[in-house]
Every structure is written in C-alpha cells, then in structure tokens.
C-alpha cells in the first residue's frame, strides 16, 4: 500500500479482527456467526461494512461460485503498527488496575519474576517429598 | 467551608494512619494464623472511615481513646495559639460589663476606648489562615486531578479494549464456561466474555454491565475454568465497589503515602481472599493446580510473543504472597477461634470512634464568654477573655483575648439609654474567638424584631439574620459548637411572670427554628440559660415562690420540661438562690448558683457539677466563691 493506512472505525475493526484470525478466505455468513456474541447485525449491514473495507483496500473480495469470500489485504501486524500506541495509552499505563478486578497485574510482571514464581512452586513441590 | 473539610480530612488522615500502621505491624502475624477474610473486613472499615469526613456521633461509645490533644492539633491547623480548655470561673459580684450603665462605670469605659480605634491587627492569624486556604485549594485540586486521571484512564482503556475485542466463542470452551457459571450460581448472560489483546491480563471490567476480558483465547481447559472462577468470585462479592472505594480514598488522601500503602495492601488482600475462597475445602493438589494455572496464564500463549512488559514492577511480591497463601492456607483458622481478629475489629471500631471525636473537634470552638442576668444586670458566668463594651457613639465593640483584638460589631445603640431600653440584653451575647453571637432588638425603624448578628472570625465579618415573629427584651444566646446554637427570647407578662421562647440553629446561626418552650410548666424571668447539646438545656429562673434555685430542664429538645431537683447542704438554706447560666465543656458541666442574703444582698456563688451533659448534678464545695 502506497498511501497511509487509515484508522478504522470500531465496527470495521471488529470485522477485520475476525478475518485476520481466520487466516483463510472467509464468507460473510462466517463473519456474522463469529460476531454473534458481540453484535447482532443483519446480513445487509455486514455487507455494507464489507464493501467499505474492500473500498478502503483492507479486504480482497474473491468470487467463489455464488458466494463472495474475503481475505485480508493488510496484515494485522501492519495495521496494528500504524495505529500504534497512543500517547494516552502510554500515559495511563498501569492505572487501570485500580479500577478493574485482575487475575494478576500483567504489566507489573517480567520474565525474571516468572522464573522466581516457578522456583517458588517447585520449592513447595520439593518440600512435599 | 472548604477549609473546615480540609482540616477534617487532615485529622482523619493523620489519626487513621496510626491505625493503618498498627494494622501493617500486626499483618504478618494475622496472615500467619488467620484467614484473609479478617484483613479484608478491617481494611474495608478503615477505608469507609477515611471516606466519611463528616461528623458521626459516637458520643456514648463504650471505649473512647483520646489519641491526641485536640486543641493543640486544632491550634496548629488554625494558626492560633492553643487555648487550653481550662475552666477558670471568674464570677464578678458586680455587673462587670461596661454596658449595663455607662454612666456608672466611666473608668472601664475609658480604658477600652483608645484600643477601639485600630481594628484587627492580628497579622499572624491572617497569614496562617490564608495559607490554610491555599492548602485547602491545593488539596481539592489534587483530589480532582487524581479522580480525573483514574476515570479518564478507565474510560480510555475500556474504549480501547472493547474496540479491539472479539467474542469468545470456542464451542467446547463455551461448555466449560457455562459449567463454571452454573457452579457459581450466576446466570451466563449476566457477564459478557470477550477477548481483547488490549487487556494485559484477564480482568473483570465495569460496574453495571460487567465484562470479563481475556487477553487471548488460547487458554487450556483448566486455566480457563480457574480464571473464570476467580473473576466470578469477585463479581459475586461486588469487589469492584471495594476497589472503587479504595480509589476514592486514594484520591481524597492523595497527600498521604500511608493511605496509598493501605490501598495497595487492601487490593492485595482482596485477591488473597478471592483465592482463599476459590480453593477452600480443596486439597493441596488442587491448590497447586490453581497456582500452575495462574503462572501459565501469566506466561501467555506459547504461540504468541510474550505480552509482558517491564514498565512496572512490584507484581511479583503480590503473586508470591498469594501463592504461599494458597498453598498453606489449610493450617489457618477461619471459623471458631476468632478471638484475635475480633479483638482487632473491636479496637479498630473504637479507635475510629475516638477519631470521630477528634473530628468533632473540627466543629468545636474555643470557649466563649457566657453571661447571666440575675437582676437586670449581667454577670459574667464564664470569662473566656472576651467581652463587649459600648463606645461613645453607641457602637458595640467586642474585645478578644483580653483586648488584644478589638472589633466593631454591626450593632449600634443609643449610649445615653440603659441597655434594656436600647434593644440589647446583657445576656444576649456569646463571645468566642470562633463564634461571636449577639441577639438584640432592632433599631427604632423596625421595632419588635429580633436580630442575630454572627461573626466566625473575631469580628472581621458579620452576618445578620432576623427571627420572624419573635419579640422580647430578655435575651440569652449561646453555642455548643460552631454549628449548633440556641437562644431564648423572653418578655415580661405581668407581675412575676414572663414568657420565654426558645430557638435553635444548626447552621452556625444563619437560620433559627423555634423549639418547645417551658411556658406551660413555668413562666418567670430567666436569670441563666445553657444547653449542653441540641437536646439537653437548662433554664434558670429568678427565685420567687420558694428560695430556689428554680431550674427547669429539657432532655428532648424542648418537647417536655421538668424541674431539676437540686439538693444543697443545709447551710445554704437561708439564702435566696438565682441560677446563673451553666457552662459546658463537652460532658462536663458547671452550674453556678448565685446566693442572696436577705440582709446583705449578694453573698457569693456556689457550683453544681455534672459529668454527663447535665443529666445529673452534684454540689461541689471546691468551687465555692463565698463573700467573707
């Protein structure tokens, strides 16, 4: 792509996430199915979003018999890089941990910590014997 | 207003910090022997206490611990010299006030006059109070900044996470998911499960429509079940509110590192208690499985890059503590032997009660000069070093700290006339450095209207309010703290009869409400009035039918009145007795009784003493002030 990659609106990004994850050309009904837990779209709505994505150069549309199938024209990593980490994201960093219930604080653990915890569990294992 | 809240917050922050430190010291011991539940609840109580800056009344708490000298603290924050609450009862046998009849007391008049010109020279008080004001604003700004930061970061994160999210729908895993929900007794539809790579870890987000966010979908069966179970325990327990409360506490006490520490400890306890609940009644193998599952979850999916960052640290200590707690918990006591934690709970509650009493000190004021009116002349029942006088032009001047500060009140009288013709009443003054109140009849233009002038800053500024429908010339006023005050308006109603009406304020004197009066029970000229609280008040009447003292009192804010029975030693039987205005210092009360000898007149003052807000009184010879 020569031109700059545009930032996608939420709805279009959601469709792209499904396509990227599938890793192979997918049909509209497959996408609809995958989105079911989050959005209840009519097929026509999805078709509008899909054609917009094709226009923007995010999707390739391939005719397969009676159905169209879609595959990504832009790689997930490529898009992610273009959207980048906003300054806000950097600014807020770790502070959301004060507002949500986390299983653990993923941002406050590094590889060495993991090794330490592993050692702790192994220690218990050994004490057991 | 803001400064008062700020002072309250400082006091709470300080006193509660002591409790937090005590808790931190006790924590390792508690952790070793008792379940996390106790610490969870204790932190919760402490957090609630930190959030309630306002006056909770624990007056009658069983245990009351005085942590610190309140008046000293007050003085530090208010920038005024510490006023020790010593009760130096100075009772003047003669009308002390220069007001009663200017012509008779020229020397005291002139003594006060020169000082009357320079009004307010107390520069140090001024500087400190403006410093306090700026600090209060800085504090408020800090609170808003912290809140704004947290809220906007939350909203931003939520938006980002949802934008990058996809529904979690792997068929076989959905079965497991539904199984956990069912086991926990939660409807599957009440929590949405989404996968979003913007989530750094599995988390439960949102208060009203909670969403369980997973960073990816490659969890194995065991991991998924443990993760969902853990988050659903939080959900069931409404821990998100606990967390929000901690955030709010942090915002309000942003200047106090001990509170930040407490907030961190409490969030950790939240997790430990959650783990504890999850593995309760399970064997060590299960517990190990749970730890392994968390550890695996932290490692991230094998197919993907490690999503861990090194921006923040400190997470590992929490995790180590949690693992140890999960694996060793079965040795801890949970149910029956709760003595130590229960004791801790009681201590925290009572310390909090004591703290509350200190908070009350925020409303407490320096003692005020109190007047009585035994025979159309005023007597200073309690001299707080403040007094009033009238200058040549008829302005009423208020003098504070034995004349150190002199301020002009808005009340003006005709200096040629006696007080009672002038619309003022010798007992219609209450003069404390924190609250000056004058009740008076207005000028000739608007006769028969009772006004109250109030100043909270030693006469610098005054507010004035009119008491609709009240009229009378026998006036008494007083305050029990900065907010609560009372006054009586009385008028002669024939021979040996006077009707008295009672008003109270709870906003420092801006508005007044009439409460019940004793007129149906007893109606005579008042010589002294005093309240120890909003409910309990005493009316002292001029002796008449018997030799007195005639005291009526209410303990239900004026709904009912009854005579206070006083037993005095026989030696005082021959005197006539006029009750003067009682004074109160918290629970302690002092009730002066004027003795009048049928032959020589004034014979001295004796005192009744109370230590229960005046519910019971006893004569104490130690305070006798008898004319020899």
From TrEMBL, chain A:
Pfam families: Penicillinase_R (PF03965)
GO MF annotation terms: DNA binding
Entries under InterPro entries matching the protein: BlaI_family, WH-like_DNA-bd_sf, WH_DNA-bd_sf
Domain of life of the organism encoding this protein: Bacteria
Keyword terms of this UniProt record: DNA-binding, Transcription, Transcription regulation
An individual GO BP term: negative regulation of DNA-templated transcription
Coiled-coil stretches: none
Protein family per UniProt: Belongs to the BlaI transcriptional regulatory family.
Protein name per its UniProtKB record: Transcriptional regulator
Lineage of origin: Bacteria, Bacillati, Bacillota, Bacilli, Bacillales
From TrEMBL, chain B:
Key words, A-Z: Membrane, Transmembrane, Transmembrane helix
Domain Peptidase M56: 9-324
CDD domains reported for this sequence: M56_BlaR1_MecR1_like, Sialidase_non-viral
Record-annotated membrane-spanning stretches: 6-26, 38-56, 136-157, 338-359
Key word Transmembrane present: yes
Keyword field contains rRNA-binding: no
Pfam families from the UniProt entry: Peptidase_M56 (PF05569)
Domain of life, per lineage: Bacteria
SUPFAM superfamilies according to UniProt: Oligoxyloglucan reducing end-specific cellobiohydrolase (SSF110296)
Protein name as it appears in the record: Peptidase M56 domain-containing protein
Organism name: Paenibacillus montaniterrae
Lineage, highest ranks first: Bacteria, Bacillati, Bacillota, Bacilli, Bacillales
